[in-house]
Design brief:
Elements: H1 6-27, H2 31-40, H3 47-62, H4 75-78, E1 86-90, H5 98-101, E2 109-113, H6 121-132, E3 138-144, H7 148-159, H8 167-183, H9 189-207, H10 210-217, E4 222-228, E5 235-237
Helix pairs in contact: 7-8, 8-9
Function: Reversible hydration of carbon dioxide.
Binding site for Zn(2+): 91, 93, 144, 147
Enzyme class: lyase
Length: 238
């Protein structure tokens, strides 16, 4: 006598096996497919070229050479994939919009923003994803003049003032830059601290993430940095 219960069990197993094979095919495409895909990827460019595009975009922005763009034309294509030319670690300051500053549009930049452009664990994970899955050739740390987070860290360090909430964690992340800047005996302590904070972020990206560090060592990724001037719109590169 036939046990009809076997059929649905087998059907479910067959379905799971088929689904697994389909997912595996998507996750691990053939070598030829990977090579063809890489050749067609818009952001498969040298890190130096990505940086030059950012610089050119900032020149246009600072000169006021900005044009109204209809982003609806490429919106459908962006639903299928993204190919950003750079990752930007920026301060969360509302006056510092990376896409506008660098003259880029939707899909061009992979942006992570925190007050003081600090390197957080979530930020590291985000850029690791951008390196391994999106193939970005450049990560750029963008500080800015008059940064309130750095100023607060500087003041708290000098006055030894305790702040509420999670602010002490943020200031602790910035404090090493303030200490380094102080050792330089600068004429403008805040400006020096902002610069050192960008350099600190660049260093932390490479040293706190093996994925990012290895990509840099292999020449596949470059870490850059600069200071955006709120008054002129110009980015000074470090």
């Amino acid at each position: 006598m036939c046990d009809c219960r076997i059929r649905p069990i087998l059907s479910r197993r067959a379905f799971v096996a088929g689904a697994g094979a389909s997912l595996a095919a998507r996750a691990f495409p053939s070598t030829r497919a990977r090579a063809e895909d890489k050749a067609a990827v818009p952001n498969a460019i040298p890190p130096s070229e990505a940086l030059e595009r950012l610089k050119a975009g900032n020149v246009r922005f600072a000169a006021g050479d900005t044009k109204d763009t209809d982003f609806s034309a490429g919106r459908a294509a962006l639903t299928k994939a993204q190919h950003p030319i750079a990752g930007i670690l920026s301060c969360a300051d509302s006056r510092v919009p990376p896409e506008i500053i660098f003259g880029q549009g939707p899909g061009d930049l992979f942006v992570s923003r925190d007050a003081g452009n600090v390197v957080s664990n979530y930020g590291l994970a985000s850029f690791e994803y951008a390196v391994t899955s999106l193939g970005i050739p450049l990560i750029f740390v963008l500080g800015h003049t008059g940064c309130g987070a750095v100023l607060t860290a500087l003041s708290a360090s000098m006055q030894r003032k305790e702040l509420p909430g999670h602010l002490p964690e943020l200031l602790k992340a910035i404090e090493p830059a303030v200490i380094t800047a102080h050792g330089r005996h600068p004429g403008d302590f805040l400006a020096a601290s902002i610069e050192e904070n960008v350099r600190l972020g660049m260093k932390r990206l490479k040293t706190r993430s093996k994925i990012i560090g290895d990509a840099v060592m292999a020449g596949k990724l470059k870490i850059g940095g600069g200071i955006y001037d709120l008054g002129t719109g110009v980015v000074t590169y470090l």
